[in-house]
Amino acid sequence: MIEFIAQNMAPIMFISLIVFLLIGYPVAFALAANGLVFFIIGVELAPFSDSINLSWPLLNALPERFWGVMSNDTLLAIPFFTFMGIVLERSGMAEDLLDTIGQLFGPIRGGLAYAVIFVGALLAATTGVVAASVIAMGLISLPIMLRYGYDRRVASGVIAASGTLAQIIPPSLVLIVLADQLGRSVGDMYAGALIPGMILTGLYMGYILLMSFIRRDSMPALPLEARTLGHGVTSLFVALLVAAGIAYAAHVYFSPTQGDNADILGATVGIAVIYIVAIIDRATKTNMMSRLAQQVIIVLIPPLALIFLVLGTIFLGIATPTEGGAMGAVGALVMAAAKGRLSMDVIKQALASTTRLSSFVLFILIGARVFSLTFYGVNGHIWVEHLLTSMPGGEVGFLIAVNLLVFFLAFFLDFFELAFIIVPLLAPAANALGIDLIWFGVLLGINMQTSFMHPPFGFALFYLRSVAAKVPYLDKVTGKTMQPVTTGQIYWGAVPFVGIQILMVALTIMFPQMVMHYKGEGTGIDPNTIKIEVPGFGAGNGTPGLGLPDNGGGLGLPGGLQLPAGNPLDAKPADGANQQPETKPANDLNTPPSFN
User: Fold this and answer.
1) Among 14, 145, 295, 453, who pairs with 150 as Cys (CB 3.0-4.6 Å)?
2) CA separation for the pair 112, 123 (Å, rounded)
3) Strand, coil or helix: what is 28?
4) Cα–Cα–Cα angle for 44, 45, 46, nearest 5°?
């Protein structure tokens, strides 16, 4: 029995960790306790197995591993983006966006659902925090959607799903963690995830469009009396055309001096001009634009500018993700101050939430370091790699098995837990199969997104449940008694969107170029076809060489070295010459050297 345990320490250790987690033991302490307990067992059983490489002095490596976690600059981006997201959520940006975009899409069937998805994508690109997005949209949009007759399952599902876009659209926190665990650049991970995130947003909108035809009564258009901003879409289009013309003129002006940056500078000038005009138009009440156009421009441009400040500087190589997060935090404070909603209470709440989340991540990382020390000491990484690479089907079989594993574990584990426990075990096997780790990380990120959505432990569902009405309530606008939203309706509303996320995983596998574009165009040359041949010195007899003439001596260089043939050490002095090596007089170090 002892020998069996010694030979199978790695799988026993992994199964024990899963049991610890399933019984509800805190993740960080489950990892650390599991690692320490099995370290003691492994030291005692080391004589019974060649695969156990554990000894008591190995514990001295733990302080160095802990320091590696705390000195990781990449992880600094997590508190910055968390702080930015919480300040923006407190600043009322989500409320303004939902109200304005809801008015813009209101006249069409399902307009409020489109607005929620659009705002969810914008919040994802600015906050990167799922909880903030779901709670904000649940508080603001859910009562309005129920007020105007939306099906409860559709309304709750679209809010929960849109909030989870913060999982895959940069600057996502999970992408930072995945990049760190895979040993890859956060900027590359962001660039790779951008297009899949946009396509997933489009699939959500496609589902709403389909449902608006299949179940027309489930998502009615906003009634006329609810459109307080009135009409004015034509005015908005004219304003956008004017902005585009100004941007093109500025691009032409900057091209001779700024080169490739002229596009960005031109767009910045066009947007800035139309934003200033909208503010002046509202302040002076000249009514050059409609109220709808004014509101859309004034509300939309600041978050778009913040997105460029964060993601644009990262993609252009001007800032690292950590620096981009710091600029985003400052930008969020400026936006909150501009709206008059920045106070010491807001800052204290944001700092407290940021500290809690950062501590949570740090403790899990430290626990993971203790676990991995023991797991690697019993060759667990080799066991996992052999297990995954030996699956039938090669790379495709590996991807199917891994995605099924992650999807199943996401029923019980949070995305942070999956990233810190599972990903380090999967990365070596993926690398051994020649899979690009950026593509693999984005694929896992899309799959882990389901951890927020599928019952019974989807955190987005919990967030929505915490703000959705649990008892009948009186609507303030219509005066009608509204029925509550049940937990079953929230769960069933999430199911179609989980299916869409699974479809997105399949599309990412079938069309990897959605992610691989991060590498750029490349040269189009296959490195495997490159053959380097170094010519020799000889020539003739069909032997490739430099073609130097051979005059019977050594290298045979014409007019050059003309070294004699044979070994120079065997050379003998000329006949009758008893030659002695010529000696030079010693230099007099008391006199300065002469250069004549």
Assistant:
1) 145
2) 16
3) helix
4) 95
Distance, in Å, from the CA atom of 590 to the CA atom of 2, rounded to the nearest integer, reads: 81
What lies within 8 Å, CB to CB, of 341 at 6+ separation is 90, 91, 92
Q: What is the distance between the alpha carbons of residues 45 and 37, in angstroms, rounded to a whole number? A: 13
Pairing of β 481-482 and β 473-474: antiparallel
Find, among 287, 286, 110, the residue nearest to 205 by Cα: 110
Residue 222 DSSP one-character state? P
Give the pLDDT band of residue 552 (cuts 50, 70, 90): very low
CB 369 within 8 A of CB 66: yes
Written as one letter, the residue type at 68 is G
Predicted confidence (pLDDT) at residue 478 exceeds the cutoff of 80: no
- Helix (H, G, I), strand (E, B), or coil: what is residue 181? helix
Interior angle at CA 94, CA 88 and CA 100, nearest 5: 140
Contact 519, 530 (CB under 8 A): no
What distance in Å separates the CA atoms of residue 561 and residue 583, rounded to the nearest whole number? Answer: 25
Over residues 135-159, the pLDDT tens digits come to: 878 888 888 888 888 888 999 999 9
* 488/470 Cα distance (integer angstroms): 12
Inter-residue contact 142 to 156 (CB < 8 Å): yes
Q: How far apart are CA 120 and CA 496, in angstroms?
A: 17
Evaluate whether 301 touches 272 at the Cβ level (below 8 Å). no
Q: Token match 């900057």: residue?
A: 254
Burial class (CB in 10 A: 0-12, 13-18, 19+), 564: exposed
d(CA 154, CA 217): 11
Coil vs helix vs strand at 33: helix
